[in-house]
């Protein structure tokens, strides 16, 4: 999706937006969205911290106003301060509207709250990264403006985060249940146009105050923005969940003591930003002149000139795309089913088997894969750009000592070495790769392919073989399959949890035609949370739903769902116990 990044604040939000996902996928907000969050304990504690945030906001705006040099800037900051004062004065009214009252005595401040408010006020005082106040080094009033900009960098992500979260929740609430949702007022308050205007006003002010900053000062802005975002995420993750079951994160709420977590994943356009076939073709085209010049064209592995290789590949690529689309069109031309029909889907996908085999045979016959050096392939794999968050997810999965995890990559890719090399860094050599392989003669490809996986049915067979091997070792398992192409459809449906990453229109069209439901992951988790709250027993709560796949827009969502935030507090305790533990932590500090 094309994004209009706008000014500095907007660019920073999109750069660090993945952090916000870890807030959305916390037990707190999944519980709030599903209206199952305990109101008298967890939510009451959460909104009690608003007072501390609002007081810090008021003081930060005041300090920023003192640092602003331009009268328009001062007026803008003054208006933001007045808005914060107004929300502070209305806090009791809001709380009563939400159905709560707080005692007259001071409300204790959380450690996570303290970390953010201390950071904000230190920034507003010109103390950056624990150093001596930068105000002491400023020679002119104009230079003080950068402190105001720093302050807005610490404020803006807080407003945007809550506007984002509340809007996401508002978007999935069933209209029939909207009036009865226990947290309706809170959601409407933060997803309102009024709060959106506050968020935008903070971002506009940050943009304006940052116009004249140097490159070094803009780097400080970025660091402060990211730090503020992380502290807000940590605050939300630290909210205590009092004695209630949660569906997130999977690794900590599902009993994996006697069960393996099986992560199976496609490679092309699921893990990668580019299709591996095009990458291998590009290696052939780029290295062809070198092969011609060093005399290798005199061997039995003679290669086409670079220009011929490129034109041949263009023809093959265009032919594949056109015939694939024709194949999909012929499938969806049949009568659409009303309910999920797995057998008819399997039968329809059989049509792709012969198509994929013929396409691969054309590649072999063309000779475009002849003469590639294995070292060139490995270097290309090592420099391959993976989707944002993909490598990080796998690194955290394989290093998680609390999980018995097996990770398998299942791919139509022609070259196993390319995939292995792509995951060779970051201790990811433990991944099991299942794919086709190129044939080598003295480290140089012959142009032949050892064909192990060419169709959705063959990929499903590999998927089932992996599970059989796991069972033969006496292991039970929960399977998560991550994919984004038509070839993944059967594996996605066979897994306990099928997650669609990316935006393949062909996958969606075929799935829809045979009754597959594509559900945004967060929305699906909220529904699961609601169902869990209605059950008397939480054992085996994750039961696969026939014909249901979950969709995500980023790997951050997958990581947030399976692993959660590293700062997540997932303790089923009473609030009295929570406060006792918090007081002990404060004594230690």
From TrEMBL:
<dbReference type="Pfam" id="PF03070">
    <property type="entry name" value="TENA_THI-4"/>
</dbReference>
<dbReference type="InterPro" id="IPR036412">
    <property type="entry name" value="HAD-like_sf"/>
</dbReference>
<dbReference type="InterPro" id="IPR016084">
    <property type="entry name" value="Haem_Oase-like_multi-hlx"/>
</dbReference>
<dbReference type="InterPro" id="IPR023214">
    <property type="entry name" value="HAD_sf"/>
</dbReference>
<protein>
    <submittedName>
        <fullName>Probable aminopyrimidine aminohydrolase, mitochondrial</fullName>
    </submittedName>
</protein>
<feature type="domain" description="Thiaminase-2/PQQC">
    <location>
        <begin position="148"/>
        <end position="237"/>
    </location>
</feature>
<dbReference type="InterPro" id="IPR004305">
    <property type="entry name" value="Thiaminase-2/PQQC"/>
</dbReference>
<dbReference type="InterPro" id="IPR050967">
    <property type="entry name" value="Thiamine_Salvage_TenA"/>
</dbReference>
């Amino acid at each position: 999706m094309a994004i209009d990044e706008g000014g500095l604040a907007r660019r920073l939000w999109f750069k660090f937006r993945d952090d916000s996902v870890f807030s959305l996928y916390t037990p707190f907000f999944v519980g709030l969205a599903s209206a199952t969050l305990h109101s008298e304990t967890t939510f009451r504690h959460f909104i009690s911290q608003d007072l501390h945030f609002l007081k810090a906001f008021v003081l930060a705006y005041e300090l920023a106003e003192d640092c602003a040099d331009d009268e328009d800037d001062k007026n803008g900051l003054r208006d933001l301060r007045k808005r914060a004062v107004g929300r502070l004065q209305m806090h009791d009214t809001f709380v009563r509207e939400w159905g709560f009252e707080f005692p007259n005595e001071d409300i204790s401040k959380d450690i996570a709250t303290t970390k953010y408010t201390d950071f904000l006020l230190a920034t507003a005082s010109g103390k950056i990264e624990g150093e001596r106040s930068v105000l002491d080094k400023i020679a002119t009033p104009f230079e003080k403006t950068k402190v105001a900009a720093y302050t807005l960098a610490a404020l803006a992500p807080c407003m945007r985060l809550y506007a984002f979260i509340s809007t996401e929740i508002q978007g999935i609430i069933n209209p029939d249940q909207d009036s009865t949702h226990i947290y309706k007022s809170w959601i409407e308050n933060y997803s309102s146009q009024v709060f959106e205007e506050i968020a935008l006003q903070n971002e506009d002010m940050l943009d304006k105050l940052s116009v004249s900053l140097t490159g070094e000062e803009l780097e400080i802005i970025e660091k402060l923005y990211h730090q503020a975002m992380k502290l807000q995420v940590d605050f939300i993750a630290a909210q205590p969940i009092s004695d209630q079951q949660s569906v997130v994160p999977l690794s900590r709420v599902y009993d994996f003591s006697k069960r393996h977590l099986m992560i199976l994943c496609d490679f092309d356009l699921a893990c990668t930003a580019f299709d591996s076939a095009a990458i291998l073709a590009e290696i052939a085209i780029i290295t062809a002149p070198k092969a011609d010049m060093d005399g290798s064209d005199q061997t039995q592995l003679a290669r086409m000139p670079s220009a011929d290789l490129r034109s041949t590949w263009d023809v093959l690529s265009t032919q594949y795309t056109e015939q694939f689309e024709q194949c999909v069109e012929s499938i969806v031309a049949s009568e659409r089913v009303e309910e999920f029909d797995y057998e008819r889907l399997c039968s329809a996908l059989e049509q792709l088997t012969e198509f994929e085999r013929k396409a691969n045979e054309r590649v072999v016959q063309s000779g475009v894969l002849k003469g590639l050096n294995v070292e060139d392939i490995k270097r290309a794999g090592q420099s391959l750009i993976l989707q944002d968050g993909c490598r990080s997810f796998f690194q955290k999965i394989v290093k998680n000592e609390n999980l018995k995890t097996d990770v398998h990559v299942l791919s139509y890719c022609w070259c196993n070495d390319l995939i292995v090399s792509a995951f060779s860094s970051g201790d990811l050599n433990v991944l099991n790769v299942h794919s086709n392989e190129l044939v080598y003669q003295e480290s140089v490809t012959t142009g032949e392919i050892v064909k192990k996986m060419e169709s959705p049915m063959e990929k499903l067979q590999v998927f089932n073989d992996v599970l059989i091997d796991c069972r033969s070792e006496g292991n039970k398992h929960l399977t998560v399959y991550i994919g984004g192409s038509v070839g993944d459809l059967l594996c996605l449906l066979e897994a306990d949890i099928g997650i669609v990453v990316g935006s393949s229109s062909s996958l969606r069209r075929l799935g829809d035609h045979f009754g597959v439901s594509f559900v945004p992951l967060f929305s699906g988790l909220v529904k699961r949370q609601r169902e869990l709250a209605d059950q008397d027993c939480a054992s085996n709560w994750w039961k696969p739903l026939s014909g249901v796949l979950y969709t995500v827009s980023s790997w951050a969502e997958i990581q947030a769902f399976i692993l959660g935030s590293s700062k997540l507090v997932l303790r089923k305790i009473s609030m009295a116990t929570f406060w006792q533990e918090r007081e002990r932590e404060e004594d230690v500090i």
